[in-house]
């Protein structure tokens, strides 16, 4: 049994590196792509969401709050290992345009540092809390090497708190190359995800990270997308 287990482990180790590359080969110029994005985590439901995404072979983008990364580093490590894209959603979720430059820089920098510490990678994407932003905020994010990612459709899942309504909102907002805003801290969003992924696939969508939508182009620091 031991030898068999060892052989399986070796086989798994040999096969594993091929998987992320395969997922990255989705060409959004040729197929209909959609990016699911989850803000404000990681939270108590994030582990369940990661299991759903893994089972469905879906890659998503997470805009994390630094203080939540500090609370749940293992989930963030898992997120990165499972091929999801990680972006910066500030340390404590303030409305950035109301802050001084140094405060904005600190919110972003502390989050960059904790994500880097946990995953070994520094985020290249940033999403402003509440979508509140201006040229100054985008510029300060650019100074730290980040592009700003907004969305094409917001589900208002935090307000709906209802699986059926969240599902209907996502299906209504879904469009080719769309960026859908949801929250992994809303349990109903996580609960409806297995059904929703099936719905979206039936409609022909390939569910990819935000960067995959760019078809190989890299966003410049300070740039806003979409
Ligand atoms: Ni947020």
Low-confidence stretches: 16-23
End-to-end separation in angstroms reads 53 Å
Tell how many strands the DSSP assignment holds: 9
Bound compounds, each kind once, are:
nickel (II) ion
Structural class: alpha/beta
Number of domains: 1
Rg value: 18 Å
CATH architecture heading:
Alpha-Beta Barrel
The proportion of residues forming helix, as a percent range, comes to 40-55%
- SS field, number of helical segments: 11
CATH superfamily: Glycoside hydrolase/deacetylase
Oligomer: single chain
* CATH topology call: TIM Barrel
Shape: globular
Quick one: biggest sheet? 6 strands, parallel
What is the highest CATH level, the class? Alpha Beta
The string of secondary-structure elements, in order, is: HHEHEHHEHEHEEHHEHEHE
- The overall pLDDT, averaged over residues, is 92
Sheet-strand content, in percent, reads: 5-15%
What labels would you give this structure?
single chain; 226 residues; alpha/beta; TIM Barrel; six-stranded parallel beta sheet; 11 helices; globular; binds nickel (II) ion
Describe this structure in words.
By secondary structure, the protein is α/β, with parallel strands linked by helices. It has one domain: Glycoside hydrolase/deacetylase (TIM Barrel, Alpha-Beta Barrel). Helix content is 49%, strand content 15%. The protein has eleven helices and nine strands. It has helices at 2-15, 18-24, 46-56, 66-71, 73-81, 101-119, 135-143, 157-160, 163-173, 187-202, 210-213, and strands at residues 33-39, 61-64, 85-88, 125-126, 147-149, 153-154, 178-183, 206-208, 224-225. The strands form two sheets. Strands 1, 2, 3, 6, 7 and 8 form a six-stranded parallel β-sheet that branches. The chain has a three-stranded parallel β-sheet with strand order 4-5-9, covered by helices on one side. Strand 4 (125-126), helix 7 (135-143) and strand 5 form a beta-alpha-beta unit. The chain is globular and about 45 Å long. 39% of the residues are buried. Residues 39-40, 89, 93, 129 line the site of nickel (II) ion.
């Amino acid at each position: 049994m031991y030898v068999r287990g060892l052989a399986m482990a070796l086989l798994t180790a040999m096969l594993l590196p091929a998987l992320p590359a395969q997922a990255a080969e989705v060409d959004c110029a040729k197929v209909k792509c959609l990016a699911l994005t989850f803000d404000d985590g990681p939270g108590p439901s994030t582990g369940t969401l990661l299991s759903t995404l893994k089972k469905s072979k879906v890659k998503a983008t997470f805009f994390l709050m630094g203080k939540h990364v500090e609370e749940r580093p293992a989930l963030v490590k898992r997120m990165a290992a499972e091929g999801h894209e990680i972006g910066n959603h500030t340390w404590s979720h303030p409305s950035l345009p109301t802050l001084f430059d140094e405060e904005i820089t600190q919110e972003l920098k502390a989050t960059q540092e904790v994500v880097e510490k946990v995953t070994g990678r520094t985020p290249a994407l940033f999403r402003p809390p509440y979508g509140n932003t201006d040229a100054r905020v985008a510029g300060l994010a650019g100074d730290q090497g980040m592009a700003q990612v907004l969305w094409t459709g917001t589900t208002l899942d935090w307000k709906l708190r209802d699986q059926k309504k969240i599902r209907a909102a996502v299906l209504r907002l879904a469009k080719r190359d769309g960026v859908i805003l949801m929250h992994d801290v809303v349990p109903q969003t996580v609960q409806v995800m297995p059904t929703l992924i099936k719905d979206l696939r039936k409609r022909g969508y390939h569910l990819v990270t935000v960067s995959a939508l760019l078809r190989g182009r890299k966003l410049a620091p300070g740039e806003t997308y979409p």
